Amino acid sequence: QVQPVESGGGLVQAGGSLSLSCTNSGRTFGQYTVAWFRRAPGMDHEFVALITWNNGTWYADSAKGRFTIASDNAKNTVNLQLNRLKPEDTALYYCAAVRPAPTITTMAREYDYWGQGTQVTVSS
Fold first, then answer.
1. Half-sphere exposure of 59 (CA within 13 A, CB side)
2. Cβ(52)–Cβ(104) under 8 Å?
3. Which three-class secondary structure state does DSSP give residue 17?
4. Alpha-carbon torsion (121, 48, 62, 8), positive or negative
5. Which of 18, 51, 72, 123 has its CA 20 to 30 A from that of 5?
6. Mind listing the pLDDT tens digit for each residue in 83-99?
7. For the CA atoms of 20, 63, 71, 45, what is the dihedral angle to 10 degrees?
């Protein structure tokens, strides 16, 4: 059973940093691919970054060079480090998981399990 739980959001000034965490309610994510998406008011879910069971990573262009996704060795926690934040990064950030598949996916509709989200607000 997979039940992502996010933490770590908050309010930060532009140029600042935040660290988001996603746990599976005390269990490991195992071989699931874990991704972060975000959703700004009035917008659809936007892919941010993902990590595969063997620590392969993939980033949206908007995240490259600023955000880093990583998991601990046991894959109990998946972290998303947000650096050099911009006001346009303001959104509700969601952690999501999907069963292993031959190809990775960045499409929100393909993910089976979602957390409740954590708010990131970047002031200018």
1. 13
2. yes
3. coil
4. positive
5. 123
6. 999 999 999 999 999 99
7. 70
